[in-house]
Amino acid sequence: MTAISQRFEELRKSNTCALIPFITAGDPDLETTAKALKILDKNGASFIELGVPYSDPLADGPVIQAAATRALQNGTKLDDVLQMLKTLTPELQAPIILFTYYNPILNLGIKEFLKKVAEVGVKGLVVPDLPLEEAEKLIHSAQEFGIELTLLVAPTSSKDRISAIAKYSQGFIYLVSVTGVTGMRAGLESRVKDLLQEMRGITNKAIGLGFGISGAEQATQAKEWGADAVIVGSAFVKRLANGTPEEGLRSLEELCKQLKTAISSEQLTVAGK
Fold it and tell me: For labelling, which of 11, 92, 148, 239 has a CA lying 20 to 30 Å from the CA of 44?
């Protein structure tokens, strides 16, 4: 499976904005998660972010927190998630980016964790509670296993901090579109547009915009502002949780197609591309 940074280079050459859906592993069950990954892969996802359920998800809003709680109540464990991925990743075109908090990594041991996730085909890692000051060890260890660790930039970050994060972030840079936790919002903060342009002057790495994007209009806006990728989480998680698993999967597919259409229509020329 292609590396995250390599896939972004391919997308950039064709002036294509990437779609990165997020779902929570094990909600409502891992069988449905596997089906959802296949559906997203076939309907426009350039990458797929898979959340490992965690008991104290501080960066997540109520929708994803509730999904993590349900998954944990169902007995979903990291080993179960990885076993599911082991059989599935060879069938997927979209690289898998694992979203996990730092404590489970430390509990297992950094090298052991990375070895396990690399063996099942995971290509990227997002650790929302890992500060830049503590990231270097994990970044270097991840590179040994062919995994790229993506760091997050907050809308309140200073120029110096953005520069430091851009230097170390692998695969792409995850720009958080709002101050606070994940979740669906009516619109994007205007500050994000300026921040995207500011970041273009700092780095040529791909920039993915996430937190708060829930529909086609916001996704289109993010693309027009210059994002290399649109990351959508709560909207997918909410759809998958509504109704029966079959109804949730149909709704998930519908949203994926809508978002892909929205960001694929007449790609715009963006500064820095």
Answer: 148
Q: Is 211 left (phi over 0), alpha (psi -120 to 50) or beta?
A: left
- 3-class DSSP assignment, residue 205: coil
Helix, strand or coil for residue 50?
strand
Helix (H) or strand (E) holding 62: helix 62-73
Q: What is the pTM of this model?
A: 0.92
Per-residue tens of pLDDT for the chain, all 273 residues: 579 999 999 999 999 999 999 999 999 999 999 999 999 999 999 999 999 999 887 767 889 999 999 999 999 999 999 999 999 999 999 999 999 999 999 999 999 999 999 999 999 999 999 989 889 999 999 999 999 999 999 888 899 999 999 999 999 999 998 654 444 444 455 678 889 999 999 999 999 999 888 899 999 999 999 999 999 999 999 999 999 999 999 999 999 999 999 999 644 433 333
Q: Which two tokens stand for residue 6?
A: 């390599």
Contacts of 25 (CB under 8 A, 6+ apart): 33, 50, 51, 52, 53, 71, 76, 81, 84
Say which residues have a Cβ less than 8 Å from residue 70's Cβ, sequence separation at least 6.
Answer: 26, 27, 28, 241
**Residue 240 burial (CB count, 10 A):** 26
